[in-house]
Specification:
By secondary structure, this protein is mostly helical. The protein has one domain.
Length: 186
């Protein structure tokens, strides 16, 4: 029994370390991108009104929006902010709820990894075609490179959810969100 607990402890620590690294990347990149996006758009509005519009603002804003969207997928999974059927979970016994969470997280992880692979193939196709953006003359694939990364990170979050559910007694909706009834404040 002692070996089982030490293995669980090692797995928990690895899962926690991965969470810290991924969390740092997600949070800081999302903060930076939102700051840059907001600043760029405000500055461009002012420049357009009083001077001349910033010629590359739309392309940079597009890139930042794509980045925020796909890194946000992983962040949403980690914080359990994805769509779920809470009413069904509330009616289930804890064992059945845990089984379904493991099943859902497994299927979701597989889907995220398939999407990451498909997005990677798309980025490679875009890279081979050599298309460039109009204003900055940057290859379009640079804009799309974050898409497979975002899906892959979301898959990692689902794997972390599986690990959390296998190493903890209670049911977890994500690596950071335990399954519990939430009272709504009206």
């Amino acid at each position: 029994m002692g070996d089982d607990n030490s293995i669980r402890t090692v797995i928990r620590n690895i899962n926690k370390t991965i969470g810290i690294v991924v969390n740092a990347f997600e949070v800081w990149s999302l903060i930076l991108c939102m700051f840059l996006l907001t600043s760029l758009l405000i500055i461009n509005v002012i420049a357009r009104e009083f001077f001349v519009s910033i010629y590359f603002a739309e392309e940079v804003a597009e890139f930042l929006l794509i980045f925020v969207t796909f890194v946000g997928v992983s962040y949403g999974v980690r914080k359990a902010r994805h769509i779920r059927m809470g009413a069904f979970f509330d009616m289930m016994s804890p064992k059945i709820e845990k089984f379904f969470m493991l099943f859902i997280a497994t299927v979701s992880a597989v889907v995220m990894f398939i999407m990451a692979f498909t997005a990677y193939e798309y980025v490679m196709t875009a890279m081979s075609r050599g298309h460039e953006t109009g204003a900055l003359r940057l290859p379009y694939w640079i804009f799309y490179a974050i898409i497979p990364v975002g899906f892959f990170m979301a898959g990692i979050q689902y794997i972390r959810t599986i690990i959390k559910n296998l190493t903890e007694k209670d049911t977890w909706m994500s690596p950071e969100q335990q399954s519990e009834y939430e009272d709504e404040i009206i």
